[in-house]
Amino acid sequence: MGHKKVCLNCRKAFNQNSDFEIQSGFTCPECGQKMVEVNYKFRPPKKSDLKAWQVSKFLIENGFSYQHIYKNIDNRNGLADKENYVDYPKSMSDAKKFVTVYKNQAITK
């Protein structure tokens, strides 16, 4: 299991190289822009599905790189059960709600 590199400009995803020494700074082979790293669970939409790519871009730019998001986290020990996984949204209106509700689980850089 690993990560994928995604070019949000070209709407392409690539499996990450396993050579850990060259992982940082990937650029898109088509447009040359810096690519973002997302979780291996990310399933890229078809290149022609602009709405789905807009949703993905919005989520990624707000710190949701398709990592596990949980409905409830047990505050006593900080753990979450895998049955608490939240599905990622498919529409922009749902994505906006998702970002608001789960902002405490976003990855900040």
**Average pLDDT score:** 84
Strand line-up in the sheet with most strands: 2-1-3
Share of residues in strands = 5-15%
Which percent range fits the helix content?
A: 10-25%
What is the overall silhouette? globular
- Number of strand elements: 3
Q: What is the rounded distance between the termini?
A: 22 Å
Instruction: Please state the CA-atom Rg, rounded to the nearest Å.
Output: 15 Å
Descriptors:
2 helices; 3-stranded antiparallel β-sheet; alpha+beta; single chain; 3 strands; 109 residues; globular
Describe this structure in words.
The structure is a single chain. The protein is an alpha+beta fold and 109 residues long. It has helices at 50-61, 92-101, and strands at residues 3-7, 12-15, 36-39. The protein has one domain. The chain contains 2 helices and 3 strands, in the order E-E-E-H-H. Strands 2-1-3 form a 3-stranded antiparallel sheet, with no helix packed on it. Helix 1 (50-61) runs parallel beside helix 2 (92-101). The longest helix is centred in the middle third of the chain and has 12 residues, at 50-61. The relative contact order is 0.17. The model has no long low-confidence stretch (mean pLDDT 84).
